[in-house]
Amino acid sequence: MPPQTTALAEQIRRALTAAGFTVVGETERNSPGLRVSEDESGVLVGWTASHGFEALADQSRGSDGADGSGTNGSMRAIVQAAVSALLDQLGYTVEETHNGTAFRVMPVAQ
User: Which of 1, 7, 57, 95 could in theory staple to 38 by disulfide, Cβ–Cβ 3.0 to 4.6 A?
Assistant: First the structure.
């Protein structure tokens, strides 16, 4: 990846950590928290729920919606909205990915 992408990823990790979010490494696929990874056009930020939260979401899914979105989908939307708003406030351009499970962050416009 280009050096500017690596620097952007590190800036995003520091900002999220300073805001109190748990940021996990790219290789920690099953660890709960926010994952920041480099992408050819910026940085991807995704969230992994803990196994305990997913079990709780599965238990309540029947009363939460038959479309499969349930508690986990609602919580994902809340987490992504909070992270997106924070990064937007810091001046980054943030856009949701096509599958809606993460979002792409581009450098601050000069």
Answer: 1
Q: SS in 3 state form for 24-65? A: ECCCCCCCCEEEEEEECCEEEEEEECCHHHHHHHHHHHHHHC
User: Band of the pLDDT at 92, cuts 50, 70, 90?
Assistant: very high
64 vs 74: CA distance, rounded Å: 9
Q: What tokens appear for 59 in the block?
A: 């238990």
* SS3 state at 1: coil
Q: Where are the domains of the chain?
A: 3-106
DSSP class of 67: T
pTM of the model: 0.76
Would you say residue 66 has pLDDT above 60? Answer: no
Query: CB of 51 within 8 A of CB of 44?
Result: no
